[in-house]
Structures are given as structure tokens and as C-alpha cells.
Design brief:
With 292 residues, the protein is α/β, with parallel strands linked by helices. The strands form three sheets. An eight-stranded mixed sheet has the order 5-3-4-6-7-8-10-9. The chain has a three-stranded parallel sheet with strand order 11-12-13, with helices on one face. Strands 1-2 form a two-stranded antiparallel ribbon.
């Protein structure tokens, strides 16, 4: 395949065995973990967890990524569409509340083939960095029920420093508006699981509360009323990040400043506790125990 799936449009030639482009991935799906995951937001995990499918690679590769083993180093195992369909059946049999596709953009066509073989009778969640191409998102229309995008950076300078891309906010904001167009405002079932809609994540970074406030203002001004935000304080310096200012955790004062602004805007959503800022929550990838 000649790949144009992410906003980089690198046109890499990816085959079953040959890798190419920024992601460095083959055409064959690479997956690093398929297992129940209990630590997502309440309308995603519920009480039984989401069936989390962590795909290898990433279209963004943030310098501070806590999952760098898969996002930067492409740890994972090959899966065919039939094998992925079988894995989704096992997750459903385990009683999951939802099925989550995590950093899955490099494999959209293959995932659609797997879903043509077996479509789980559960909400399908697209968990993404937000750095998506609108044309690729339209390939998912009618298939994805819930979008779970990050909204990371506002300024081109900070985007370039942390991700190597000045256009992060431009592309992520366009992508989120497309997600909202597809799925609308949130719909919940009797167990308060989101069955349709968009839930925006924002990770507060040390020293960058001003950008956090600007991003919350954008959500308030541009997204439909009722679009929830998950305000995350789980930042831990990972991946040997050496960017000045990002080598520490956020302070309580920084968190409270952003939280107070979110409350002032009356944005619905979720607030992550300080105990989340721990490497203990990083899943085990690419081991036998990583796969159901």
C-alpha cells in the first residue's frame, strides 16, 4: 500500500514485510497488547473494563510518551484481520463494556476488514493522539461509535518541540470537529457507558498551563455544548525526555489552575486524581501475558 493515512501524507510504500514512512510499519497489522483495561474514563471502562487493543507505532511520537515502547520502537506482533476478529470475540466473551482501538491509524483498512468479519456488539472506541487526517476519519464513519482524542498542544512552537510537527493543533482541531460531526453529543446507556459521542482528553504539562487554558477555551467555543473533557494530571517524565521544563511532574497549583478554569467554563467531564501520575499504570506490552 502507498500510505496517505495520517496528516504527514508521506506516501510510503508499505507491504506485508517492508516498512516505510514516518511510522516505519509494514502493511500487516502490528499489535502490542490485547487485554482488558480498567483505567480509562468511567464511560469507557465502566466496571468491567474496555477491551483495549494497543497497536504498534504512532503518527505523532510525542517526546514524553509513556508508551514509547510501542509508539517510538514499534514493539508488537503481526496479526491478520481474522486473528484480530478472533481476539475481539474473546474480549466480548470476557464481558468488556467497550472495545478500544488505540493508536490504530496506520492500520485503518486492515481493521475495517477485521470488523467486516466480526463486529462486536459493543461500542467501538477510537483512542487517538488527535493527529488525524479528516479523509481517514471519514473511512471510519458509521463504524466508530465513540472518539477519544487527545488535544495536546496549542502553539506551533511547543508542538514542534514536543512532536516535531508545527501543525498539531491545526490538524487535531479539524479532526475533532469531524469526529463531532460524525458522532454528535454523547449518548449513554443504562450503565452510563458512552455508546456514541466524543470525549476529549487533555494532559496538563508542567509549565504549560496557559496552553491548557487556551485549549479548554477552544473546546468551549467550538464544540457542541455537552462535549466532555477528561482533564489528566498523569504526566510523568518518560522516554528519557530532556526538553527543558518537561523533566518534572506537574504541581498541585498547576493542576488547580487548569481545573478551576474548566469549572469556570462549565465544561462537563472528568478529573484525574494525583495517584495516576505513576509509571505503575503503564501496561505490559508485547509479552505472552499481554494477549488474551
Amino acid at each position: 500500500m502507498r500510505c496517505e493515512l495520517c496528516p504527514r501524507h508521506c506516501g510510503a510504500s508499505r507491504t506485508e514485510t517492508a516498512t516505510g514512512g514516518f511510522c516505519g510499519l509494514p502493511e500487516t497489522m502490528q499489535i502490542a497488547r490485547i487485554a482488558p483495561h480498567l483505567w480509562e474514563e468511567p464511560p469507557i471502562s465502566g466496571t468491567k473494563g474496555t477491551g483495549a487493543i494497543f497497536f504498534s507505532g504512532c503518527t505523532l511520537r510525542c517526546a514524553y510518551c509513556q508508551n514509547a515502547e510501542i509508539s517510538h520502537r514499534n514493539a508488537g506482533r503481526p496479526f491478520t484481520p481474522n486473528e484480530l476478529a478472533d481476539a475481539m470475540r474473546r474480549l466480548v466473551d470476557l464481558g468488556m463494556e467497550t472495545i478500544s482501538f488505540i493508536t490504530a491509524t496506520p492500520f485503518v483498512p486492515q481493521i475495517l476488514r477485521a470488523l467486516a468479519i466480526y463486529r462486536p456488539p459493543l461500542p467501538l472506541v477510537w483512542n487517538t493522539s488527535g493527529y488525524e487526517d479528516v479523509r481517514t476519519l471519514r473511512m471510519l464513519e458509521g463504524t466508530v461509535d465513540v472518539y477519544l482524542p487527545d488535544l495536546k498542544h496549542r502553539s506551533p512552537a511547543m508542538s514542534r518541540l514536543c512532536t516535531g510537527r508545527e501543525d498539531y493543533f491545526e490538524k487535531a482541531s479539524q479532526a475533532i470537529l469531524e469526529m463531532v460531526r460524525q458522532c454528535g453529543t454523547p449518548v449513554y446507556n443504562e450503565k452510563n457507558i458512552m455508546t456514541r459521542g466524543v470525549l476529549i482528553r487533555h494532559l496538563i504539562l508542567p509549565g504549560l498551563t496557559g496552553e491548557s487554558i487556551q485549549l479548554l477555551d477552544w473546546v468551549h467555543d467550538e464544540c457542541p455544548q455537552g462535549t466532555p473533557v477528561s482533564l489528566m494530571q498523569q504526566y510523568v517524565p518518560c522516554n528519557n525526555v530532556s526538553i527543558p521544563g518537561l523533566t518534572r511532574r506537574i504541581t498541585r497549583r498547576e493542576y488547580e489552575r487548569v481545573k478551576d478554569h474548566m469549572l469556570m467554563l462549565d465544561l462537563p467531564g472528568f478529573y484525574q486524581g494525583p495517584t495516576s501520575a505513576s509509571e505503575d499504570f503503564i501496561p505490559v506490552f508485547n509479552q505472552d501475558e499481554s494477549f488474551v
